[in-house]
Amino acid sequence: MKALALIAHGSRRQKSNEEVFVLAEKLKGICAQQYHIVEGGFLEIATPSISDAIETCIQQGATDITVLPYFLNSGTHVIKDIPNEVTQAQQLFPNVSIKVAPHIGASDLMMPLLITAANSVNGQE
Amino acid sequence: MKALALIAHGSRRQKSNEEVFVLAEKLKGICAQQYHIVEGGFLEIATPSISDAIETCIQQGATDITVLPYFLNSGTHVIKDIPNEVTQAQQLFPNVSIKVAPHIGASDLMMPLLITAANSVNGQE
Question: Is B77 a known active-site residue?
Answer without folding.
Answer: no
